[in-house]
Write a structure and sequence with these properties.
Strand content: 5-15%
CATH topology of one domain: hpI Integrase, Chain A
Number of helices: 13
Distance between the termini: 72 Å
CATH class of one domain: Mainly Alpha
CATH architecture of one domain: Orthogonal Bundle
């Protein structure tokens, strides 16, 4: 077969792919190609099981985690499938090996004591960013959804919040000099369009903040423009350090909400709907983190059933 430059294949693949995926997704693909793939493969034919394994070994040595590397491989396989579809290469089965993980990473979740300490602090320290943290703890919303929430999406009387958009910073590298843009976009998946119940505590908080608010303005910024998600992340990181919390990742607030729901015996299907997951398996595999007390209760209940 005629040799075709890997960079050219990537460019043609992106031209086709960008018609079907979100701008943020396409930007992530472009960054992966630029930072990890184009410098490794000169021609499409250079992509072989051996060269891909070398790529993986090199990235592991550089300190990238397995999840990040698997994301790189997903993009590479999509490009290969595109090349195969165009008749530039034959079918290629790419399989790689990763080192055995000796310990499983523990997902960050606030303990009950830590969550109560944080809620107590937030209840006496008012501010727009603290409001965002309260919304996350009480609803499990994603950070981009919280930052993109407008007052018109909040129906305090009905006790609901409607999720209709998200906001994220997108890195643009394909059109002129590399730069980033804060972008409003539609939610992550079809299931992410949803209504979330607002409990009384949160309704009271929102009622206080909504006084004089303009429907089209964003809840967190109070302005026509949304808050930068990274600003919220930085705020939480500083607050977590000040309160002595063991967790520093903002996304852990969403995991904490899910964990408390499971501990309260919320069924998984309902929890999946509240979180806006495309399917229940995502909720089960990524967001269900039984704590020691829950494990202990499970064992104690089992013992009581047989003695």
């Amino acid at each position: 077969m005629t040799q075709i430059a890997f960079q050219k294949v990537c460019r043609l693949w992106k031209d086709e792919k960008k018609r079907y995926v979100k701008m943020s997704t396409m930007a992530a693909y472009s960054l992966i190609i630029q930072n990890h793939l184009e410098s490794w493969f000169e021609n499409l034919a250079d992509v072989t099981p051996r060269s891909v394994q070398s790529l993986v070994d090199s990235k592991l040595k550089d300190g990238l985690n397995v999840t990040t590397i698997k994301g790189i491989l997903i993009v590479l396989k999509m490009i290969l499938k595109f090349g195969e579809k165009q008749g530039w290469i034959g079918h290629k089965l790419i399989e790689v090996k990763f080192p055995t993980q000796r310990m499983r990473h523990q997902t960050d979740v606030l303990s009950l004591c830590e969550e109560q300490r944080m809620l107590d602090y937030l209840s006496t320290h008012h501010g727009k960013y603290n409001l965002g943290l309260q919304i996350c703890l009480f609803t499990g919303m994603r950070i981009g959804e919280v930052c993109a929430l407008r007052w018109e999406d909040v129906d305090i009387k009905a006790g609901t919040i409607r999720i209709r958009r998200t906001v994220h910073r997108v890195y643009v590298i394909d059109d002129g000099p590399k730069h980033s843009e804060l972008t409003l976009d539609y939610p992550k998946t079809a299931g992410s369009y949803r209504e979330i119940p607002v409990i009384r505590d949160l309704a009271d908080i929102l009622t206080e903040y909504s006084k004089g608010a303009i429907d089209k303005h964003f809840v967190i910024s109070g302005l026509p423009n949304p808050t930068e998600p990274q600003t919220m992340r930085n705020h939480f990181k500083k607050l977590a350090a000040a309160l002595g919390l063991s967790m520093r990742r903002f996304h852990g607030l969403r995991h904490t909400f899910a964990t408390r729901c499971v501990e309260s015996k919320c069924d998984y299907k309902t929890l999946s709907s509240i979180l806006g997951h495309a399917n229940v398996s995502t909720t089960l595999n990524l967001y269900v983190h039984p704590g020691m007390e829950q494990k202990r209760k499970c064992v104690e209940d089992m013992i009581r059933s047989i003695v």
